[in-house]
Amino acid sequence: MLSILLAGALLTGLLAGCGGTSAPSAAPSADPTATPSAEAGTYATATTADVQAALEDENSVVVDARINSAYIGWTLEGVARGGHIPGATDFSARWLTSTYSDTDNLEGETREQVLAQYLVDKGIDSSKKVIVYDANGTDAQAVADYFASQGVTDLSLYDVNEWANDESLEMESYPNYSLLVPTENVKALIDGETPETFESGVEYKFFDVAWGEVDQSGYLDGHVPGAVHVNTDWFEPEETLWMLADDDALLALMLKLGITAEDHIVVTGPEPMAACRFAVILKYMGVEDVRVMTGGLVEWSDLGYELATDNVEAVPVDSFGVDTPANPDWIDTIEEVQEMLGQPGFTLVDNRTWQEFIGETTGYSYHDKAGRIPGALFGYAGKVSSSSVSYYRNIDKTMRNADEILAMWESCLIDPENNHLSFMCGSGWRAAEILWYARVMGYENTSLYSDGWIGWSNAGLPTETGDPTAH
What is the pTM of this model? Predict the structure, then answer.
């Protein structure tokens, strides 16, 4: 699944994180003095044969400039088939303009720094021949212009419709791409349409997940129309130190929110992390059809869709419909992790910052124990912030390229093909989003160790600190 180009470019930058003394640092800002040789805005037109040749050439890169949802599998913009050209990497035109603050973000990086790192990760530089494709005739142009501004000179454009219309040519989609719904399709669903993978004649329920009551969370300032607010404290109350509530409390919450096992649910909210956290809980309890709107509210607002400001009240129900939790394998208990840790075929993946992993910081103002669980493998999350999963996201809060995630895991000796992966962080938030992405990628033999480091260290179980790769 990994291309030679991607593995070489990405693994070189990642090995220091899992095999060295610190996690990878952010890339420096792109050189503002770079002057492309090619005239900006004027590029050759590539043919299908050109694309096929580039895919076999280690000195060439084929780039999908469309939105992330099209790349992962959704059929959008009138393209005959969903997904991407196998072997193509992604660099969405939306990353150039999506809402992002250079001065107010979790990792302290400017957009230019983030995009420059993407070029490194994807092996795009002045030595490469780069073919950029789209479906609308504008996205590829914008991305090619950006590449040209960074010194790439051998650029050409391609219309992906030519590839998609040829049934003899493969299009590649993530196995469970429907778990992440594009904003456009959520809007269509609300408007009464039946987008791809959704059932006609079925009522879909929408939930907006964020911390705080309706007047604290920003919900009344704007949410997806029809979405019922869910306060994260309702499933992670203060009395549990913001770890997951017990099964009885979760069942009571389902009934309060009017949720049954037979419901069809789309989870939204300002932050994908909170949405994924609630989505995992819904799956654990037994709701079979659960989707998450990709990109949080960033894409919704960037597309100019109107946000609602009313308070949508849930209609409680008396019965969930099945015994709960109906899918207990989604979430691991401390006892289960203790039993499985060290056994062949089981990997506990620690999705915290490197500083948390080696015990330099706890990552939480309300928790004073630092370190890690012996035997856990470092699996990345954010660079410096304990609230970030920037290693798993694009700048517009969409899911990172699966090949890059796999290369990152490979550098840390994390093998999803032959092992059960149990993801953990401090108390389940970061790891829940990463678990959701693993499921999108088709890795069903995965779960969430929800109580994470806080639950483990508070229980007085064995811990360790220091760089495990130091010799």
Answer: 0.93
